[in-house]
Design brief:
Chain lengths: 123, 107
């Protein structure tokens, strides 16, 4: 057993509980990274819309691009919070926190798809 | 005594590959964001893109070290890496989101 003080961060995670089975920590980390790649895909969609000027009207387009970009940024923040809360739950052998990201993302994507469809149809 | 498998389910290796995938996606995103935003925002965007890209290169390097720490953790019961690198990744994505917002809003 190491007698060095634990300097792992964030303290909110590592100051409680015990090290869980490494498999779960690795899986938690891969899930975080998958959410980050999802956030990047959302932001790339926003850049693509803006660069290609789709839809042509700048008002709806800015709303879409800003919406997608903000959604991407929010996903990356939520990804970290989810990782930290899950790691803490693993350390305390408690149930994992309920998913908030996936329903939020699904809602955001439905809204974006609806806006794009409406704008393209109304054209 | 049965020695435990070196890397059950290739967890460490799969996680390392996930870091590589994510790092490469971040690198492409940083370069594209800087490239597009520079046309409308000028040098500020170039600097922001360069900071993001440079940070991602550091992340890719640190991810290799992370694999080695994970290896030691599985073999010698040492601690797994912590949340500092994930936090850095999140901050880079936020920076890119701000850059992209600037690009979208600028004329």
């Amino acid at each position: 057993m190491s007698t060095e003080p634990d300097r792992r961060r964030p303290r909110g995670v590592y100051s409680v509980g015990d090290d869980p089975d490494p498999r779960f920590s690795f899986a938690n980390e891969r899930t975080f990274l998958a959410w980050i790649r999802t956030a990047l895909a959302l932001m790339a969609a926003g850049v693509a819309l803006e660069a290609l000027e789709v839809p042509a009207e700048s008002g709806p387009r800015m709303a879409l691009v800003v919406g997608l970009t903000v959604l991407g940024g929010a996903c990356s923040l939520a990804a970290y919070v989810r990782w930290a809360r899950s790691e803490r739950a693993l350390r305390l052998s408690k149930p994992l926190p309920p998913p908030a990201l996936a329903p939020l993302l699904a809602f955001g994507l439905v809204v974006a798809a609806a806006v794009i469809t409406i704008v393209l149809v109304v054209d | 005594m049965i020695e435990r498998t070196h890397d059950p389910g290739a967890q460490n290796e799969r996680t390392s590959l996930a870091w590589t995938r994510t790092g490469l996606a971040l690198l492409v995103a940083s370069l594209l964001a800087g490239r597009f935003a520079a046309a409308r925002l000028g040098p500020v965007a170039v600097v922001a893109g360069a900071i993001a890209a440079g940070t991602v290169v550091a992340v890719l390097y640190l991810a290799r070290r992370r694999y080695r720490v994970g290896h030691t953790a599985l073999h010698a019961g040492a601690a797994l890496p912590d949340g500092r690198l994930p936090a850095l990744v999140t901050m880079v994505v936020i920076l890119l989101a701000v850059l992209e917002l600037g690009y979208a809003v600028a004329r």
